[in-house]
From TrEMBL:
Cited PROSITE patterns: PROKAR_LIPOPROTEIN
Transmembrane segments: 20-38, 45-63, 75-94
Lineage of origin: Eukaryota, Viridiplantae, Streptophyta, Embryophyta, Tracheophyta
The protein's name in its UniProt record: Uncharacterized protein
Natural source organism: Microthlaspi erraticum
Family membership: Belongs to the jagunal family.
Keyword Transmembrane tagged: yes
Membrane listed as a keyword: yes
GO terms classed as biological process: endoplasmic reticulum organization; vesicle-mediated transport
Keywords: Endoplasmic reticulum, Membrane, Transmembrane, Transmembrane helix
InterPro entries for this protein: Jagunal (IPR009787)
Localization: Endoplasmic reticulum membrane
Bilayer topology annotation: Multi-pass membrane protein
Cellular component, GO annotation: endoplasmic reticulum membrane
Amino acid sequence: MVVDSRYTKVTKEKSRLRLLILVQAVIYIIGLSCAFVTRTKEDERNTLGIASTAFGLVCSLIGELGCRRSKVNLLRLYLAASTLVMLLLVFCAVRSRLTMEMESIQSWSFTVLVCKQRVIVVAMVS
């Protein structure tokens, strides 16, 4: 049976898109686990980061459904929602970067850079 080259190209691109959506979903799962681990000031969770990452995971599922069923409207919804999720995640990253704190431990004369209750850099202060 002879298959037109256009159809083989569409099949190759669909499989490539499915792989990219799968990679994006894995990245969202990693981001979701990191968002649960990190905390902001006063021991509260980063709810905007968690919600946007979970929404991104749902968007990946929508993209997978759109790719499987060749539904253009689902793929457009996936594209718009994925863009919104990325903007929210960039906003969360910038906001968390701005809330980084500098703490000095005077007795040991070390400077400790703390980002969301994790020690990032330890340096001697002269």
